[in-house]
Amino acid sequence: MLVSNKYSKEKAVIEDSSHEGTSRIRVEFDKGELRKVEPKAATLFMGGG
Amino acid sequence: MIDSVFGVSRNRAIASLTLAICFTLMPATSQTAFNPQTAATSETELSPQEKKVIEHLLGVWGKDNSVTSVDQAMEAVGLRPSDETRFRLGQHIKQHPELHLVIRQWGWETLVLTPNEKLIARAIINAARDQKPAPVLAEIAKALAVSQSDVERGLVMLERYQILKRDESAGGAGYAVAAPHYLNWHPRLDFIFHRMAISSGGNTILTSVN
Questions:
Q1: Would you say domain B48-208 falls under CATH 3.30.565.10?
Q2: How confident is the model over B2-35, as pLDDT tens digits?
Q3: Which of B1, B95, B141, B179 could tie B148 with a disulfide, CB 3.0–4.6 Å?
């Protein structure tokens, strides 16, 4: 929501992790658009209210 | 609105969840050896600069689902990175859940630990929870893509917070879970982080969201 609204004109880097273990996940958005997901095996859902 | 949500599998619903990640991973394993430190139990007196960090956190927590962490707040107020300072601030937050609803709602661990420390905790706790051999230092370092000295630093911090305790009989890195309740935490919710760095007009805003 923040990426698509409040920060929709900015670049946002999100750092997260798998809940099951210790793998990191990194996602980059630029102006609300998804630019990069690492690792590529991460499943990304886009949606929301 | 777009939620950037990575396939998440959480059994406990979190209505305000903005980001969720579901990523199947290999359980980390590893082993370590390093210096013990005692956990501070007395009331933590904060310096004026440290109080600014707390004031910053109290000002941002809860806004836009913020669960901004201590290290992010230290950077925001221009405080030099320091494990010792971060620990003092963390102890203060741990000792004062009355300061803010976010502490009581998300737990002090969510706010005071760094991502590395959270992942190290998971590596040790998940192994104990699953009754698997404790991971060795090198395994944790590899799983987290950090140096072994970074893992050692994290283990020291987790010991100081009394989340882990030195226990040579535990094997692996030589640490065991200090507080049994961590073994019973919901596996999908323990030691989580969703950090954001927003570049805006030459500035970078650091935050964490729930």
A1: no
A2: 343 343 334 333 333 344 433 333 333 333 333 3
A3: B141
